[in-house]
Each structure stands twice: as C-alpha cells, then as structure tokens.
Amino acid sequence: KTAISFINLALILPLFVIYAGIYRKLRSSFTLGLMAVIFALGMYAILSNPLVVGSLGGRIGDIGLFQIIPDLCTTAALLILVRISLE
Q1: Cβ(33)–Cβ(79) under 8 Å?
Q2: Among residues 35, 63, 58, 46, which one has the least CA distance to residue 6?
Q3: pLDDT of 27 over the 70 cut
Q4: Angle CA(13)–CA(7)–CA(36) in degrees, nearest 5?
C-alpha cells in the first residue's frame, strides 16, 4: 500500500503540472475542475499512505479519522467530476 501510494503521487504531481500549464493557456473551467480532481486524488494518495498515517499518530487498520479523510477526498473528486461533466 505504501509503494502504491508513492507511485500514485509520482503520477499525480506531473499530471497536475501539465494541467496547470493548460489552464494558464486556456483559462478553462473544465481544466480547473480537472486540477481540483487531481488535487483531491493527491490528497487521497498522501493521506492513505500508511507511513503518513503512522507519523500523524493513527494506527493502521483502525477505523477512525485517518480512514475517513482519504475517502472524503475521493468523494470530493467525484463530486467535482460530476459537476464539470454536467456543464
């Protein structure tokens, strides 16, 4: 899980930079929405990483705040995707 979280983060960072460049050129709300989704997925990758959870005082495997926050990031990403898809 830790390795996959780091791989996801390594993929998300350049993707965010690419979309930021596109947004600077086009100023499209759709691109801005995609950047928000990428940011939310990045937060999920960070907050679901067992090393981060452990360093912030959470216990891996417990159901609590550290298990809910990553899922809230996913929910935010999906809500943004639905909103920009309906535009």
Answers
A1: no
A2: 46
A3: yes
A4: 35
